[in-house]
């Protein structure tokens, strides 16, 4: 395929959330390392599928057919060695909408502390690892669910789960949100860690919402990525795992809104109902052709993309360690994101705003991932190398005046 990822793409004036909304205050010469989408064109077979759908010129309602589920499963088998049944696939536009619609549904009776039969619906109790991807937290809070934060702990420069704290949280949770690979820390949970999680979930009856939208971005530096459901067939069969997969991150298709939610049994029934209750009937016109093309023809593109991202991540980690040695950089095992503790350089939200204005480099703010992460930043490395190099040198110049 020979894709040239070094070619810049101009996304200004495309109604881009990252550029036209979030970068606009910093000026047209700003560089954005924020929102988790990529500054690369998608694979040409995907663009062709979308263009040929566009050429029809007739954008009526569409539906989800078997080919969506079959290609979603095909991708899991091919890339992740997991073969769920196609009947377990439920189309949702977005992961965040799936979570939100679930939390507006009655709590199913197979969780640990179900409401008594015949009693009123009570609010969900949801535990989540922190730091956490903010829109998921927002829907938990806006749905009046009770949020039970589980802070990751640092061990030898790496974030790990404190399983005693996790157990205490899951004992009082109906749902646990796992993010694998984890945004923002870039951890890819080892199979030992996943086994510990499933052991606790089995004992507490908690449903696990496994948000694996970054699963295709693996650096292969240490251990492989494992879909949780593949190591806990009993939890999977009993409907205690909801697995989220999407071509959105992998192929830069987030704006198409196409997600495959995998689920079994009563939880699957609940999700089908929750989706209808939310009025999420038909997919966006381009969502299905885009996803099918991605999961059918996208592998070659991904194989070329991964070394480019890996090299950008390596460059970013080394750059900070060399030029900003007081920063603590958490080298990611997956995703294209790098999480950095910059507290020895900036001490307030205003400092970070000033840095972004002066350097004209936009990053994601640590406090968006949890209030205690003020002074941290998250950097998106999925952009042409020259732009990344320029952005890091501007940041360094203003942090090392
Ligand atoms: C961990 C994680 N989950 C979910 C999403 C968003 O998914 P969606 O657009 O399907 O709601 C993102 C986007 O950055 C993410 O990083």
Automatic annotation (TrEMBL):
Residues 131-395 form the Aminotransferase class I/classII large domain. Keywords: Aminotransferase, Lyase, Pyridoxal phosphate, Transferase. Its EC number is 4.4.1.13. It holds the Pfam family Aminotran_1_2. Belongs to the class-II pyridoxal-phosphate-dependent aminotransferase family. MalY/PatB cystathionine beta-lyase subfamily. The keyword Oxidoreductase does not apply. One of its GO terms (molecular function) is cysteine-S-conjugate beta-lyase activity. It is an enzyme of class 4 (lyase). Its cofactor is pyridoxal 5'-phosphate. This is cysteine-S-conjugate beta-lyase.
């Amino acid at each position: 395929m020979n894709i040239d990822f070094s070619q810049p793409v101009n996304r200004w004036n495309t109604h881009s959330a990252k550029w036209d909304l979030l970068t606009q205050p910093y000026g047209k010469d700003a560089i954005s390392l924020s929102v988790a989408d990529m500054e690369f064109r998608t694979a040409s077979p995907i663009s062709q599928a979308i263009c040929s759908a566009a050429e029809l010129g007739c954008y009526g309602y569409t539906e989800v057919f078997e080919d969506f589920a079959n290609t979603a499963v095909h991708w899991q088998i091919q890339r992740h060695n997991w073969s769920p049944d196609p009947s377990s696939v439920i189309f949702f536009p977005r992961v965040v909408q799936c979570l939100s619609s679930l939390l507006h549904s009655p709590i199913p009776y197979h969780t640990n502390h179900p409401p008594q039969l015949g009693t009123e619906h009570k609010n969900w109790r949801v535990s989540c690892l922190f730091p956490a991807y903010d829109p998921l937290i927002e829907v938990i809070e806006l749905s009046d669910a009770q949020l039970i934060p589980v802070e990751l702990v640092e061990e030898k420069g790496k974030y790990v789960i404190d399983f005693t704290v996790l157990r205490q949280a899951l004992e009082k949770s109906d749902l646990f949100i796992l993010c694998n690979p984890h945004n923002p820390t870039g951890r890819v949970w080892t199979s030992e860690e996943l086994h510990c999680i499933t052991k606790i979930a089995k004992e507490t009856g908690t449903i696990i919402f496994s948000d694996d939208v970054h699963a295709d971005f693996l650096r292969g530096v240490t251990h492989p990525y494992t879909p949780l459901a593949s190591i806990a067939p009993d939890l999977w069969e009993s409907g205690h795992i909801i697995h989220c997969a999407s071509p959105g991150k992998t192929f830069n298709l987030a704006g198409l809104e196409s997600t495959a939610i995998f689920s079994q049994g009563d939880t699957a029934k609940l999700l089908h109902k929750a989706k209808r209750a939310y009025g999420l009937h038909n997919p966006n016109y381009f969502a299905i052709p885009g996803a099918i093309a991605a999961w059918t023809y996208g592998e070659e593109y991904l194989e070329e993309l991964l070394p480019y991202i890996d090299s950008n991540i390596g460059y970013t980690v080394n750059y900070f360690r060399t030029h900003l040695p007081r920063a603590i950089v958490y080298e990611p095992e997956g995703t294209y994101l790098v999480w950095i503790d910059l507290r020895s350089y900036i001490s307030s939200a205003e400092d970070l705003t000033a840095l972004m204005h002066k350097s004209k480099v936009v990053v994601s703010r640590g406090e968006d991932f949890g209030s205690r992460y003020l002074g941290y930043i998250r950097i998106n490395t999925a952009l042409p190398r020259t732009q990344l190099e320029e952005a890091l040198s501007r940041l360094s110049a203003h942090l090392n005046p």
